[in-house]
């Protein structure tokens, strides 16, 4: 009986609480707001909680939190996923649609998006698509399952995967059909067997989010079999050096390129660098080294973790980098010989296509692929842990990552992106990615238009003649000048030698009739009677508009007689020759 009474009391108590909250919650909130508001409205600014508002607005929430982390640790801060600066980007560029003056390509026609990296190499890398998976290192950054998922995705979608500067698993190499080995400033991943297996080798000089310096990875962050793959002892720190060699020289780097080309059997040997203010000098140096491709990483690039000073305060925007790199390769007459791969803050099909239009041969995808393979699996980590904890090698939920789900979502992302890019190419009236160029772009930002070298949308689109004029076609002007000089010389020759020699000269040039070149000499105002006669004929009797109709007829008859005489002289001279 007593337990029943206790149960009834408990039910009544919960019922009372529920009724109270249903009825009295408004009253409770009102009291809380009233008391809190009274404090906020009456306390001095120095003691008021709202002092945080101007403080955060002055410094920013992110900077405030990062400075507190520095104050707590006293060590260099390492921020994940790159810079948070609002860099100038590709958004103000738009493509020109084909509608009336040019029709869009039929939807049934296939669009060619195949690319070749290192076309001058003995064994160029040929890919079905222009999107490649960038170097996200195993052990240092990604977990084993995440790396294997990316390798399988690369094979499934007809592209290549970059090893990154971490350890290289044999299973990953066997899974990927096209494998790019990143030759980094490390002691691992340098085996001759691995160099011979690689379809392309990338010497890593730097990256957008980390500049060109080295780093250290503590033993506790190298979990799983990453330590064994990298050849490290228990408790040993993984070191990424600042240079490839001690007392490094230019000849050391040239020898390195030659040796890698020899060992690999002629696969493309390239270089990766972070885009900086002296980008053209860096490219010139790489050209002298004899590389087959250059991978330029813009300032918006991400990484597993980097000091904010390197990701925020070094480098240049990806947009600036691709334009400058492409222009300089063209200036050095290396366009089509040395391939250009671009990365850094590129997430959407439109951004991929714009970079390719600006001169890149292919695009590296990093963060976009990372979030694509995570997809709905991030809910295994959030809301109490960051979503990357599902893919980082030291992540708390890395064991819950499902490789099959990652392969499915990652492959879908690449497939959808390529189809969307093909749709964009059709909308421009093109049939191949190779047809897409900077000429297909405009910008609604005047500064971007001027910087990139495309029309500004507020102004009428210039025609071809105006384009040549705007580009300052000096060669065309010089050619016109030479033509004018040649015409004047010919006219003088005709005046001095008479009509017979002039007609002979025209005969040798293949102009037996009244030619356009003779008409140009007339425009120079020469006094030769034959030339003047042609000028009158060519201009339809200009200069005689004030004469009477009778005089016009007489003049025309004289011209006809003189024309017949000239033709007879011409034919006679031809027969003699």
Please provide a written account of the structure.
- This protein is α/β, with parallel strands linked by helices and 577 residues long.
- Among the domains are: 93-377 and 406-436, TIM Barrel (Alpha-Beta Barrel), CATH 3.20.20; 496-576, no CATH class.
- The chain has helices at 2-42, 52-59, 61-73, 144-157, 170-175, 192-197, 226-229, 250-264, 279-289, 308-312, 318-331, 349-357, 367-374, 403-427, 446-452, 464-470, 474-508, 516-523, 529-538, 549-576; strands at 93-95, 115-117, 125-127, 131-133, 160-162, 178-183, 200-204, 215-217, 238-240, 269-274, 293-297, 339-343, 362-365, 441-443.
- The strands form 4 sheets. The protein has an 8-stranded parallel β-sheet.
- Helix 12 crosses helix 14, helix 17 crosses helix 20 (549-576) and helix 19 packs across helix 20 (549-576).
- The protein starts with a helix and ends with a helix.
- Mean pLDDT is 85; it is low at 493-547 and 565-577.
Which SSEs are present, and which pair or pack?
Layout: H1 2-42, H2 52-59, H3 61-73, E1 93-95, E2 115-117, E3 125-127, E4 131-133, H4 144-157, E5 160-162, H5 170-175, E6 178-183, H6 192-197, E7 200-204, E8 215-217, H7 226-229, E9 238-240, H8 250-264, E10 269-274, H9 279-289, E11 293-297, H10 308-312, H11 318-331, E12 339-343, H12 349-357, E13 362-365, H13 367-374, H14 403-427, E14 441-443, H15 446-452, H16 464-470, H17 474-508, H18 516-523, H19 529-538, H20 549-576
Parallel strand pairs: 4-13, 5-6, 6-7, 7-10, 10-11, 11-12, 12-13
Antiparallel strand pairs: 1-14, 2-3, 8-9
Helix pairs in contact: 4-14, 12-14, 13-14, 17-18, 17-20, 18-19, 19-20
């Amino acid at each position: 009986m007593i337990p029943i009474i206790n149960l009834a009391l408990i039910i009544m108590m919960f019922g009372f609480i529920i009724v109270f909250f249903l009825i009295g919650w408004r009253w409770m909130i009102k009291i809380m707001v009233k008391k809190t508001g009274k404090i906020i409205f009456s306390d001095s600014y120095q003691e008021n909680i709202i002092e945080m508002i101007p403080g955060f607005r002055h410094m920013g929430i992110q900077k405030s939190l990062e400075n507190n982390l520095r104050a707590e640790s006293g060590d260099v801060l390492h921020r994940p996923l790159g810079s948070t600066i609002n860099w100038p980007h590709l958004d103000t560029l738009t493509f020109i649609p084909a509608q009336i003056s040019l029709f869009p390509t039929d939807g049934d026609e296939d669009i060619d998006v195949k690319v070749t990296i290192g076309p001058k190499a003995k064994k160029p890398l040929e890919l079905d698509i222009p999107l490649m998976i960038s170097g996200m290192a195993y052990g240092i950054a990604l977990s084993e399952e995440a790396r294997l998922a990316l390798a399988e995705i690369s094979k499934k979608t007809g592209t290549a995967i970059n090893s990154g500067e971490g350890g290289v698993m044999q299973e990953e190499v066997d899974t990927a059909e096209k494998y790019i080995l990143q030759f980094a400033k490390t002691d691992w991943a340098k085996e001759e067997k691995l160099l011979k297996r690689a379809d392309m080798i990338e010497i890593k000089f730097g990256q957008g989010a980390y500049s060109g310096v080295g780093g250290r990875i503590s033993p506790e962050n190298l979990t799983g079999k990453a330590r064994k793959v990298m050849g490290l002892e228990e408790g040993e720190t993984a070191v990424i050096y600042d240079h490839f060699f001690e007392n490094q020289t230019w000849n050391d780097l040239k020898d390195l390129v030659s040796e890698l080309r020899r060992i690999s059997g002629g696969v493309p040997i390239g270089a990766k660098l972070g885009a900086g203010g002296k980008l053209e000098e860096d490219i010139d140096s790489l050209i002298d080294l004899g590389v087959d491709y250059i991978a330029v990483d813009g300032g918006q690039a991400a990484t597993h973790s980097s000091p904010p000073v390197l990701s925020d305060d070094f480098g240049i925007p990806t947009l600036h980098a691709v334009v400058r790199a492409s222009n300089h390769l063209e200036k050095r007459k290396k366009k089509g010989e040395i391939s250009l791969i671009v990365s850094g803050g590129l997430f959407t099909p439109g951004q991929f296509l714009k970079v390719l239009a600006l001169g890149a041969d292919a695009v590296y995808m990093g963060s976009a692929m990372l979030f694509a393979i995570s997809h709905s699996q991030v809910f295994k980590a959030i809301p109490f842990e960051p979503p990357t904890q599902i893919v980082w090698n030291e992540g708390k939920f890395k064991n819950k990552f499902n490789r099959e789900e990652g392969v499915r979502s990652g492959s879908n992302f690449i497939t959808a992106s390529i189809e969307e890019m093909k749709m964009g190419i059709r909308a421009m009236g093109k049939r191949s990615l190779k047809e897409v160029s900077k000429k297909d772009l405009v910008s609604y930002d005047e500064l971007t238009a001027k910087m990139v070298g495309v029309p500004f949308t507020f102004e009428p689109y210039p025609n071809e003649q105006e384009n040549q004029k705007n580009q300052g076609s000096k060669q065309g002007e010089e050619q016109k000048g030479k033509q004018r000089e040649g015409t004047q010389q010919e006219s003088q020759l005709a005046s001095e030698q008479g009509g017979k020699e002039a007609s002979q000269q025209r005969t040798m040039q293949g102009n037996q009739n009244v030619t356009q070149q003779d008409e140009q000499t007339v425009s120079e105002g020469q006094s030769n009677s034959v030339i003047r006669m042609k000028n009158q004929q060519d201009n339809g009797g200009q200069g005689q508009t004030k004469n009477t109709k009778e005089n016009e007829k007489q003049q025309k008859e004289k011209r006809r007689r003189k024309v017949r005489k000239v033709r007879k002289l011409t034919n006679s001279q031809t027969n003699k020759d």
